[in-house]
Amino acid sequence: xxxxxxxxxxxxxxxxxxxxxxxxxxxxxxxxxxxxxxxxxxxxxxxxxxxxxxxxxxxxxxxxxxxxxxxxxxxxxxxxxxxxxxxxxxxxxxxxxxxxxxxxxxxxxxxxxxxxxxxxxxxxxxxxxxxxxxxxxxxxxxxxxxxxxxxxxxxxxxxxxxxxxxxxxxxxxxxxxxxxxxxxxxxxxxxxxxxxxxxxxxxxxxxxxxxxxxxxxxxxxxxxxxxxxxxxxxxxx
Amino acid sequence: xxxxxxxxxxxxxxxxxxxxxxxxxxxxxxxxxxxxxxxxxxxxxxxxxxxxxxxxxxxxxxxxxxxxxxxxxxxxxxxxxxxxxxxxxxxxxxxxxxxxxxxxx
Lengths: 237, 105
Known about the structure:
The structure holds 2 protein chains of 2 kinds.
Chain A: H1 2-14, H2 16-35, H3 40-48, H4 54-64, H5 69-79, H6 82-94, H7 99-108, H8 111-123, H9 130-155, H10 168-177, H11 184-200, H12 208-228
Helix pairs in contact in A: 1-9, 2-4, 2-9, 3-9, 4-5, 6-8, 8-9, 11-12
Chain B: H1 2-18, H2 20-24, H3 33-37, H4 41-55, E1 56-59, E2 62-65, H5 67-83, H6 86-104
Antiparallel strand pairs in B: 1-2
Helix pairs in contact in B: 5-6
């Protein structure tokens, strides 16, 4: 019991470095929600009922601009399709949990909590309390996210954009990437994923370039594993 | 009411997308290939999230190549490889970003 609590808190603490980058983004989102004409109650619903980063920003801006419901919904969903990949990847960790718990995981997972949890999984794949760690990380990030959206809604972007604190997000993600680079097949998937994102993200709409790049990276890793074959059987995974 | 309808639908569909293979499509129904993909999802996802944010600055006009971010990001990656520390990587990357932005402008 207390061991679970410890693991939850460890997950929550591991979310802290990511929070620096999450706050300025959420402030912008809160400001955008006010500019789109949301009432306070609508703002509370908007920040608590969903967690979707860029997808949320696009949706609320389209809503404010008077776009049709279909356009708003489709845009938000397409931008967030990459999360389906996360659900595939989190499955081995959350497999043993009840349907309700997995549903809650789907509700509160973010890029950040996914990344931390997978890196923790890479370090200690046998940790049976990893679902609790994941929950701690997800909820610490989600609560800061909600709080910062509401601050942004009430007070605007209180942190000057010149500080570029959003740059901490890729900085944290690059350090979380490193443990996943063991084995050249995985290095191939990272290089292809990164290069494809650089090429595709600017030219495909609605961040579909990001999803395409992720799929390309996964595909490249799988292809390279055919060449790697049995020569060296690493003891991982 | 219209607002709650639109964003309520988004909230529900988000859970469907974010939980697609966790809650709704059982893994046993997926072809075996999917299982072999697990190993590659985190490196592909993280690299795809990182690379564009290091290379480009977003402006109203779209994506501009940012030499300052490229320099700060590349050196920070070296620090990350060397130290394996998230905080050291943030510190190196941000200090370089601020310093180079100041020197450049």
